Amino acid sequence: MALINSVITWLMKKRIHQIELFMQYPHEVQLEWLRKLLSTARNTEWGRKYDFKSVTTPEQFRNRLPVQDYDSTKGAIDRLRRGEQNILWPSEIKWFAKSSGTTNDKSKFIPVSQEALEECHFKGGKDLLSIYFNTHLDTKLFDGKSIAMGGSHQIMEVNNESYIQGDLSAILIQNLPGWIEFMRTPNLSIALMDEWESKIEMMASATMLHDVTSISGVPSWTLMLFKRVLDITGKSNLLDVWPNFELFIHGGVNFSPYREQFRKILPSTKVNYLETYNASEGFFGIQDRPGADDMLLMLDYGIYYEFIPMDQVDKRYPEAYGLDQVELFKNYAMVITTNGGLWRYMIGDTIQFTSCCPYRIKISGRTRNFINAFGEELIIDNAEKAMAIACERSHAIVTEYTAAPIYMSGQQKGAHEWLIEFERAPDDILFFIAALDTALKSHNSDYEAKRYHDLMLEEPRVRTVPEHTFYNWLKSKGKLGGQHKVPRLSNDRKYIEEILKMITPG
Questions:
Q1: How confident is the model at residue 506 (pLDDT cuts 50, 70, 90)?
Q2: What is the pLDDT of residue 5?
Q3: How much is the pTM?
Q4: 97, 347 Cβ separation under 8 angstroms
Q5: Distance, CA of 87 to CA of 85 (rounded, Å)
Q6: Buried b / exposed e across 410-434, counting CB within 10 Å, b at 16+?
Q7: How far is Cα 203 from Cα 356, in angstroms, rounded to an integer?
Q8: Which residues fall within 8 angstroms of residue 282, CB to CB, at 6 or more apart?
Q9: Are 356 and 328 in contact (CB under 8 A)?
Q10: Tens digit of pLDDT for each residue in 453-496?
Q11: 226 φ, ψ to 5°?
């Protein structure tokens, strides 16, 4: 393994030179990719519809194609899932990354081409290791095993052809080169299980027998595995189980609420943390400096970027900026054109630029209210529909409400806390809570997965607040009036704690 470690280290560091090139020439690299994407897809259905052959500049591109979202692209994606090809992208699409739904669908399915796998997602995985090896010269990462907290996938049969849909992580694990299997744990039969309760149990039993040096995954799921390993082994911290553990690669949700719990479980300054920005739609960013809270925007992954200022997001024809037009520390909705066939696609995330030389970003939120503390990606539309169903079934009328996460602490699992002001209280509050929970599951597959057997999220915690609570809270903040609204969902507890402090005696 020491020899393998040395060879891989040498190969990884060669990539650093290419990364430095796009850092030095970002606009040239992006323009080159835009032209390559347009040329590659010029004979697709969309290429002919928008006459890609005649588009030569970013300005023409923005004028020719409207900004898209999942709902406006769904018709083409549904046809791809039925087996049609050459609609959005010329190469065959056989994989679909499943993600949480939009306003109209419980789940959305993002097409993943072979080019997106190789030139984007796999390249991003190799680059994060290249960057890590470049900043940690004494690493022994490949002397041990790695764990990937992957999801699951299902096989669809359409006209005697097999198509795969599932979590992006499962698609990536399924397509990794065979030699990688020698360097990771557990085996594929466990890694791709779709029943998470059994999966965590089997992963813990299998991985604790190996010399694990790294793990990648969403913090909440990773903590669950860590705690189960400690339960089985009876150890007080993970370094007693995996003494050579050195790296946690995380992404998907804000890591700050979990940081202290990880420090308790991994009590060593030698353990490193590396953030990535890898979504179903593409691999976008990698933390390239130890201890930083931003990520390098990766510009040569087959993705062309545009950015919409937040005051333009809700316009029918929003103005989008190129990299050469953005300003530091302003919120932008990110728009991508990819080698997976997404064209001027607004993914719903908002970012801020922390540096323009090179371009570094941090995720600032979503274009809409949301809760995504555990990977549940609960959006306002889910909440509104679920609240309406719960009220109808329990004969309740809601005046105002807001919700926020309750983070995991010790042995306590996560949950969502809802502060609700009723005009007419439900006949049975427990029935109302159950109805709300069931409706949320029916409208959001990621929430449903996190609630499975109370594995990660417990039942919602509903607290009834007195009449005029939200009015008084808005008044205290000087925000009375038609333009000021109670935030329905928040990804932190700032608003809820303010309200609770206001209504709690003493």
A1: low
A2: 63
A3: 0.85
A4: no
A5: 6
A6: eeebbbbbbbbbbeeebeeeeebbb
A7: 42
A8: 116, 120, 121, 301, 303, 336, 338, 340, 342
A9: yes
A10: 998 899 999 999 999 999 899 889 887 765 567 889 999 999 99
A11: -55, -45
Residues whose CB falls within 8 Å of the CB of residue 360, separated by 6 or more in sequence, listed in order: 288, 292, 294, 295, 296, 297, 353, 354
Joined tokens for residue 318: 């929003």
Tokens of 176: 């990794």
% helix / strand / coil in the chain, to the nearest 5? Answer: 40, 25, 35
Query: What amino acid is encoded at 64 in this protein?
Result: R
CA distance 100 to 252: 12
Burial class of residue 96 in the structure, from the number of CB atoms within 10 Å of its CB (0-12 exposed, 13-18 middle, 19+ buried) = buried
Task: Give the Å distances, CA to CA, from 261 to 140, 224, 358.
Answer: 25, 11, 32
Whether residue 341 contacts residue 41, with contact meaning beta carbons closer than 8 Å, is answered with yes
105-125 pLDDT, tens digit each: 668 999 999 999 999 999 999
Cβ neighbours around 80 below 10 Å, total: 22
The values of phi and psi at residue 380, to 5°, are -60, -35
- The model's confidence at residue 342, banded by pLDDT at 50, 70 and 90, is very high
Tokens of 401: 């409400």
- In the numeric block, the tokens 């860590």 are attached to 226
Q: Are strands 359-366 and 247-250 parallel, antiparallel or unpaired?
A: unpaired
Dump pLDDT digits (tens) for 266-313. 999 999 999 999 999 999 999 999 999 999 999 999 999 999 998 899
Read off φ and ψ for residue 327, nearest 5 degrees: -120, 155
Pairwise pLDDT comparison (425 vs 261), residue with the higher score: 425
- C-alpha span between 494 and 239 (Å, rounded): 34
**Across 28-32, 133-137, 288-292, 385-389, least confident range:** 133-137
User: Half-sphere exposure of 42 toward its Cβ, with a 13 Å CA cutoff?
Assistant: 12
The mean pLDDT of 392-408, rounded to a whole number, is 94
Q: What is the pLDDT of residue 486?
A: 86
- Look up residue 304 and give its two tokens: 């062309």
What sign has the CA pseudo-torsion 239, 242, 243, 249?
negative
Nearest residue to 110 via CA among 348, 369, 441: 348
DSSP 413: P
Give whole-number Cα distances, 274 to 58, 158, 211, in Å: 33, 40, 20
Inter-residue contact 303 to 284 (CB < 8 Å): yes
Copy the structure tokens of residue 431.
């029935």
Q: Exposed/middle/buried for 30, CB within 10 Å: 0-12, 13-18, 19+?
A: buried
Strands (E), 63-122: 95-100, 107-112
